[in-house]
Specification:
- The complex is a heterodimer of chains A (468) and B (502).
- By secondary structure, chain A is of the alpha/beta class.
- Helix content of chain A is 37%, strand content 13%.
- Chain A contains 14 helices and 14 strands.
- Chain A has helices at 8-18, 47-59, 80-86, 89-92, 104-121, 133-148, 161-174, 195-202, 226-235, 320-323, 336-374, 396-404, 414-417, 438-451; strands spanning 66-67, 125-126, 152-156, 177-181, 211-216, 239-244, 262-266, 282-286, 298-303, 309-314, 388-392, 408-409, 412-413, 427-431.
- In chain A, strand 9 (298-303) and strand 10 (309-314) form a beta hairpin.
- With 502 residues, chain B is of the alpha/beta class.
- Chain B has two domains: 89-101 and 108-347, 3-Layer(aba) Sandwich (Aspartate Aminotransferase, domain 2); 355-473, Aspartate Aminotransferase, domain 1.
- Chain B is built from 18 helices and twelve strands.
- In chain B, helix 9 (230-239) links the parallel strand 4 (212-218) and strand 5.
- In chain B, helix 3 (88-94) packs antiparallel against helix 12 (335-374) and helix 12 crosses helix 15.
- Chain B starts with 11 loop residues before the first helix and ends with a helix.
- The chains are: A alpha/beta (468), B alpha/beta (502).
- Chains A and B meet through helix 1, helix 2, helix 3, helix 4 and helix 5 of A and helix 2, helix 3, helix 4, helix 5 and helix 6 of B.
Chain lengths: 468, 502
């Protein structure tokens, strides 16, 4: 046994108690014709060898580069206290708090998570977690259709393409439809949701819209006219879903301020490492009036038989184990430990600390924008941004590759993120956070200037070409 | 309401005091950092987040943790959840900076280590299950189910077979199965189980037809029984032109003994947080990879992990496989969890995994035998069982008025997490008991003793049982008020409330 306790003697005692000679007898119920042939797997490794192999594999990833990658997943300073709490076995080796009397730790911490996110979003009902930002956005879209009994939503192309693709998958299953609202291609509002197009799509009496979904900041890092989008949605009888980035909510207007009915978002920036895509945290919050439509667990405060304050899973009649085929969603296992991470992170920073994280990211991003502009790569858009923006680089994909060979992850080529949009073909989406150093910005700008040939006397690509 | 019990904690918000927020974690931003943002996009009123010093914060969370029961605390025989030991080396592995620090949009050439691990894990899971290919994308078992049923939908549609609108599901199934079928746009047809707890072949035969898209079968079933008619059932399903989905929740019973793909299941999901020992996290995160036979491969979610002829790895590019059902979530999966699952499988190898199931099934049968021998608990289905079994308190309730809920609460006093109760719904006063392979014989014996002692207490001092738990941090909760007047977030008391409370 690798991790189990049973000795050959233990097994003999159990077999003897059952009056059988071999454990094989317990599997005789499996019909002979479908009994497994032996599995072919690499032989089991000792802990020593296992750790060596894992170190080797982890070492084949390059996490030492100057990174300007964002697009919904951000590198932040992680206070060590967060992981110390996550490593408490009482939290991470528990399961869903079905027995509240011995689950108050999980229950109270998730209630506190709900409360912290309610403060940040301004919305009173916060789900105990969804899988990630993309699935939370899809669930939010489904909510709008359930609540309005309409079968179509509008999604701004400023919402992350992976969230739109996930929504597409979920909608195909539910036999619902959606249309995309384009972004403005040029002018001062370039890169933000096209309000005129939105208005036209909302005005079609043959196609009543259940929900309008827009992101703040949007995919391109730009600030959207959320209040105006919300007004248009509500005037057409649709609900308004704001896709938010939680750290930004320390400084940006909360969804409640622009009358959003639902907020969805990727919670990774709240104390969760990037780890190549997950586990993350799907944030989903709504107004009180939508409480019966929100999928996923909710934790409520109540009292015990002695009148002590205590917490319990509540409003359970929405969930799959009670309602089965009529449930609001099939979600069961969620991302509770990631919600705990988010709560500890927010509490560890406090309101001033979280504001500082957002504001420092904004300041670093402005420094980055200035440095890259000076290097010959101006911003692709002119509208306001927080900590992420697109730059214009001729032959962006090739330049991006060459910069990688110089040890720089120069953001994300928009041609790869949004292949169909010609107005974005020369864009690189870059971000900065409080973890971005002045040296990294300087290195990026210097190398980019060199690649673009805008530094007199040094031909493009002559330094470090092809080296790693 | 008071907060008086040992370790009970006020909320973070009550611990807050102006200026207490912990330490200087990052450099202060320039005062004008946000001036360039339009004022109407900025927050007018700061969020009322708590300000707590780090020591108070740590004590808050440590004390709260001690109100919790986890596998690391003690025995946790929660049926159908496979609460086995979570190896610590796997926690170390997932936290290696090379894994934890990798951005999901990092270029493939900077992600070779993770891509190789994922590629290997897909192959390992395919070998374990007898499936032809595996996607690691689904975030949890229920999302794996949705993925699998959307694959079924895509398969039928690609063949122009649009009439298949029904999914057949036994009444003993986990609630996620019918909820999944609904999310994927199918109508659920519930099939009653046979008296022996197994699938009712005749009921399935009667329900199968040109409208059947798939059946969803949990094998072994939620009653802890291997489906003995599985061969006939699969033949019948395929003859009707439908596909067979296997809910892999109970895979811990059959590693090395039964490979669903080899036996003829078309699609299944794995719960790595059950079978492959990744932590349950207080409710998640887990991961729910899906395995398929060859005909379903074209429809798998994108992106897949590919190996190039030169031995390097890359992610599929957008649009590279047009028949795909699309994307189930952001990025490639709960990779941090999948690293742990890979480590668990590689620590065991084929022999070790088979031993896992052998010991899990042996332990369950041993515990079942102990309870059956005493007679205090009904064991409704004839043995042997798989990795879990049902005990019923119907007779006890009739004789003493003590319900299974009371028994569960009394188990807390005895130092155990209760089993799953009142599930499956097909058995009255059910307890679904899953000891797993990682509990010592002494623990199994002591747990059996505790259950038998509770049965005696139910006869002699029933109020002791019906008022349990007595030793937990809190007593039974007022769940009715919680649902009727939901309090889902902390609100600071108004000055008027504070003065009336004072």
């Amino acid at each position: 046994m690798v991790y189990g306790p049973h000795t050959p003697d233990d097994r003999s005692r159990m077999l003897a108690a059952l009056g059988i000679g071999s454990v094989d007898e317990l599997f005789e119920v499996i019909p002979t014709s479908v009994r497994a042939r032996p599995m072919h797997l690499p032989p089991g490794l000792t802990e020593l060898d296992l750790m060596a192999r894992l170190r080797t594999l982890a070492g084949h990833n390059r996490v030492d580069l100057a990174s300007f990658l964002g697009a919904g997943v951000y590198r932040h300073h992680l206070p060590p206290v967060v992981d110390q709490i996550l490593l408490r076995g009482e939290y991470y080796t528990a399961y869903t708090p079905y027995q509240p009397e011995i689950s108050q730790g999980t229950l109270q911490t998730i209630y506190e998570y709900q409360s912290l996110l309610a403060e940040l979003t301004g919305l009173d009902v916060v789900s105990a977690s969804h899988y990630d930002g993309a699935t939370a956005t899809a669930e939010a879209a489904l909510m709008t259709c359930r609540a309005t009994r309409r079968e179509r939503v509008l999604v701004s192309r400023g919402v992350h393409p992976q969230s739109r693709q996930t929504l597409e998958t979920y909608f195909a299953g539910a036999n619902l439809t959606f249309d995309e609202v384009p972004l403005i291609a040029d002018g001062p509002a370039a890169g933000t949701t096209d309000l005129a197009a939105l208005g036209r799509l909302l005005a079609d009496p043959e196609r009543p819209i259940g929900g309008v979904i827009a992101a703040q900041p949007n995919l391109l890092g730009l600030l959207e006219p959320m209040a105006e989008i919300g007004r248009l949605a509500h005037a057409a009888g649709a609900l308004f879903v704001a896709v938010v980035e939680p750290v930004s909510l320390a400084v940006l207007a909360p969804p409640s301020a622009y009358e959003a009915d639902i907020a969805a978002g990727e919670g990774q920036p709240l104390g969760i490492p990037p780890q190549y895509g997950g586990p993350y945290l799907g944030i989903l919050a709504c107004r009180d009036s939508l409480i019966r439509q929100i999928p996923g667990r909710l934790i409520g405060m109540t009292s015990d038989a002695d009148g002590r304050r205590a917490y319990v899973m509540t409003m359970r009649a929405r969930e799959q184990d009670i309602r089965r085929e009529k449930a609001a969603s099939n979600i069961c296992t969620n991302q509770a430990l990631c919600a705990l991470a988010a709560a500890v992170y927010v509490a560890a920073l406090g309101p001033g600390g979280l504001r500082d994280v957002a504001a420092t990211g904004a300041a670093r991003a402005a420094e980055l924008a200035a440095a890259l502009d000076d290097a010959g790569a101006p911003r692709l858009h002119t509208g306001p941004y927080l900590n992420e923006f697109a730059i214009r680089v001729p032959d962006a994909v090739a330049v991006h590759r060459r910069l990688l060979h110089r040890g720089i992850l120069a953001g994300i080529p928009l041609a790869e993120l949004e292949p169909g949009d010609a107005s974005l073909a020369e864009g690189l989406l870059v971000c900065a956070t409080e973890s971005t150093t002045a040296e990294e910005i300087e290195l990026f700008a210097w190398a980019l200037r060199d690649e673009l040939g805008s530094r007199p006397g040094v031909p493009a690509g002559s330094i470090g070409e092809g080296s790693r | 309401m008071s907060v008086t019990g040992p370790k009970l904690q006020p909320t973070l918000f009550e611990l807050s005091g102006p200026g207490r927020a912990a330490g200087r974690r990052i450099p202060a931003p320039p005062a004008d950092a946000l001036d360039r943002l339009p004022s109407d996009s900025r927050r007018a009123v700061p969020a009322a987040l708590p300000e707590v010093d780090e020591q108070s914060l740590v004590r808050h969370y440590v004390n709260l943790s001690q109100l919790n029961w986890g596998v690391d605390t003690g025995f946790y025989p929660l049926g159908s959840c496979t609460m086995k030991y979570n190896p610590k080396v796997n926690e170390w592995a997932a936290r290696l900076p090379g894994f934890a620090g990798l951005h999901p949009l990092a270029p493939d050439e900077t992600a070779q280590g993770t891509l190789e691990l994922l590629w290997e894990l897909e192959r390992d899971l395919a070998e374990i299950s007898g499936m032809d290919a595996v996607t690691l994308q689904p975030a949890a078992g229920a999302q794996g189910e949705l993925t699998g049923i959307l694959l079924v939908r895509a398969y039928h549609r690609a063949r122009g077979d649009l009439e298949r609108t029904e999914v057949l599901i036994p009444d003993s199934a986990h609630g996620t199965n019918p909820a999944t079928a609904s999310m994927a746009g199918f109508r659920t047809v519930n099939i009653a189980s046979a008296p022996d707890g197994g699938v009712d072949l005749e009921a399935f035969r009667a329900a199968l037809g040109p409208r059947t898209a798939a059946i969803m079968i949990t094998n072994p079933s939620t009653l802890g029984l291997f489906e003995r008619h599985i061969v006939e059932l699969l033949e019948m399903v395929h003859a009707a032109g439908a596909l067979a989905y296997m809910d892999g929740a109970n895979l811990n019973a059959i590693l090395g003994r039964f490979r669903p793909g080899e036996a003829g299941f078309d699609v299944m999901h794995f719960n790595v947080h059950k079978t492959f020992a990744t932590p349950h996290g207080g409710g998640g995160p887990g991961a729910g990879p899906v395995g398929v036979l060859a005909p379903l491969i074209p429809f798998l979610p994108a992106p897949r992990v590919l190996r190039e002829p030169d031995g390097t790895f890359r992610l599929e590019r957008p649009g590279e496989r047009p028949a795909s059902i699309g994307r189930m979530r952001g990025h490639v999966g709960n990779v941090g969890i999948l690293v742990r699952a890979w480590a668990y499988i590689r620590a065991h190898g084929a022999d070790g995994l088979r031993e896992v199931s052998d010991d899990a099934v042996l332990a369950a049968n041993y515990l079942r035998g102990r309870l059956e021998a005493d007679g205090a608990w009904e064991i409704p289905f004839a043995g042997p069982c798989a990795h879990e079994f049902i005990a019923s308190g119907t007779a006890l309730k009739r004789a003493t008025g003590v319900r299974t809920l009371d028994v569960a609460k009394r188990l807390i006093d005895k130092g155990y997490h209760p089993p799953t109760i009142y599930f499956p719904h097909t058995v009255d006063e059910a307890m679904l008991i899953e000891p797993t392979e990682t509990e010592r014989l002494e623990t199994l014996d002591a747990f059996a003793d505790a259950l038998l002692e509770i049965a005696r207490e139910a006869h002699e001092t029933p109020e002791l049982v019906t008022s349990a738990p007595h030793s937990a941090p809190v007593r039974r909760l007022d769940e009715a008020t919680a649902a009727r007047q939901p309090n889902l977030r902390w609100r600071a008391a108004t000055p008027a409330e504070r003065s009336s409370a004072g």
